[in-house]
Amino acid sequence: QVQLVESGGGLVQAGGSLTLSCVASGRTLGRYAMGWFRQAPGKGREFVAAISWSGGSTYYADSVKGRFTASRDNAKNTVYLQMNSLKPEDTAVYYCAARSDVGLGFARDEYDYWGQGTQVTVSS
């Protein structure tokens, strides 16, 4: 079992930046590829970013490409999502997820463990 806890969300003005963190416990994070998803009010949970077990490969949704950066520190069992140039449409609850595979995952059902989410609100 892997337990995931996100933090770092908050209220920010458009154009601002936030860094989300996701700390894992229960298993060493190095065994898992990780992903970030988000869910806006009234919408489904959508893919944001994925990062391989080593951090050597990343992939981003078109809507965040060039603005968001996923990274990880396996020694700290932590994954990060650096979010720059934030837009009001980025407002959502952000979730990190762990996948019992070393390769990238892009769909919700490819992930086995989920955090409880952290709220990001971007004001215009």
Question: Would you mind describing this structure in some detail?
Answer:
It is a single chain. The chain has 124 residues and is an all-beta fold. Helix content is 0%, strand content 50%. The protein is built from no helices and 11 strands. Strands 2, 4, 5, 6, 9, 10 and 11 form a 7-stranded mixed β-sheet that branches. Strand 5 (45-51) and strand 6 form a beta hairpin.
Descriptive terms for the model:
124 residues; seven-stranded mixed sheet; mainly beta; four-stranded antiparallel sheet
Rg, rounded, reads 13 Å
Low-confidence stretches: none
Tally of helical runs: 0
How many strands? 11
Give the averaged pLDDT, no decimals.
95
Order of helices and strands: EEEEEEEEEEE
Helix content: under 10%
Give the terminus-to-terminus CA distance. Answer: 40 Å
Helix/strand structural class: mainly beta
Instruction: Determine the strand fraction and express it as a percent band.
Output: over 45%
Largest sheet: 7 strands, mixed
Shape: globular
In short:
Helix content is 0%, strand content 50%. It is mainly β and 124 residues long.
Topology record:
Elements: E1 3-7, E2 10-13, E3 18-25, E4 33-39, E5 45-51, E6 58-60, E7 68-73, E8 78-83, E9 92-99, E10 113-114, E11 118-123
Parallel strand pairs: 2-11
Antiparallel strand pairs: 1-3, 3-8, 4-5, 4-9, 5-6, 7-8, 9-10, 9-11
